[in-house]
């Protein structure tokens, strides 16, 4: 009787301990899952798309996601619009002058170069009109290219900066620069050099 009772106690204790292990494991797994879900990854694609749709929007998106003390993307927005505005404005002005010169030349050509349509170009002869037309046309083209470059650069900047939003620059990183001796396998002399080591502190 005592033997059966002792077997029953051992069996019950074994069942209790065997049930606790999967419960604890499931709790650990759930905890890790919750922690991983709570950490939101900063999207590089979203940053690039935002800047492609609205210039500077990707920089604002990165700015909001940056930790406190590391916010440094917002100041780029005025520079982006200044670059787009300046190149766009002068491209427009050169295009207007180019069209005006073209109209003036056609008017003079139709009148046998005896009349002037726009007093703004009165001091220029036919050859000068052609040269000015070419100058304004070239400037307009280069400014359009410059405006496109500013647009593409700000999209690329938003995408690149999005990679470094969660980049670790805390005190856990240490950079050590030390003098060292470099051995030359072909000669019996040693050369003085510098070694750089990046260590992660725990």
Describe the structure.
The protein has 202 residues and is mainly α. 64% of the residues lie in helices and 11% in strands. It has five helices and two strands. It has a two-stranded antiparallel ribbon. Helix 2 runs antiparallel to helix 5 (126-163). The longest helix is centred in the C-terminal third of the chain and has 38 residues, at 126-163. Residues 16-29 and 34-39 have low confidence and may be disordered.
Provide tags for this entry:
mainly alpha, 11% strand
TL;DR of this structure?
The chain is mainly alpha-helical.
Gap between N and C termini? 58 Å
What structural class do you assign from the helix and strand content?
mainly alpha
**How would you sum up the major sheet?**
2 strands, antiparallel
Strand order of the largest sheet: 1-2
Mean pLDDT: 77
Helix proportion: 55-70%
Strand and helix map with partners:
Blueprint: H1 2-38, H2 44-53, H3 57-65, H4 76-110, H5 126-163, E1 173-183, E2 190-200
Antiparallel strand pairs: 1-2
Helix pairs in contact: 2-3, 2-5, 4-5
């Amino acid at each position: 009787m005592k033997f059966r009772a002792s077997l029953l106690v051992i069996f019950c204790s074994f069942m209790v301990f065997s049930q606790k292990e999967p419960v604890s494991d499931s709790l650990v797994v759930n905890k890790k899952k919750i922690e991983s879900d709570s950490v939101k990854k900063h999207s590089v694609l979203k940053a690039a798309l935002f800047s492609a749709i609205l210039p500077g929007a990707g920089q604002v998106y990165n700015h909001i996601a940056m930790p406190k003390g590391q916010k440094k993307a917002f100041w780029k927005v005025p520079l982006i619009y200044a670059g787009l505005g300046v190149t766009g404005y002068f491209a427009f002005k050169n295009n207007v002058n180019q069209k005006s010169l073209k109209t003036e030349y056609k008017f003079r050509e139709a009148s046998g170069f005896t009349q002037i349509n726009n007093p703004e170009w009165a001091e220029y002869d036919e050859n000068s009109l052609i040269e000015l037309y070419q100058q304004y046309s070239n400037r307009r083209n280069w400014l359009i290219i410059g405006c496109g470059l500013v647009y593409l650069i700000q999209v690329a900047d938003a995408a690149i900066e999005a990679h470094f939003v969660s980049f670790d620059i805390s005190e856990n990183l240490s950079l050590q620069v030390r003098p060292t001796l470099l051995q030359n396998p072909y000669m019996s002399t040693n050369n003085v050099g510098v070694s750089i080591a990046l260590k992660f502190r725990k």
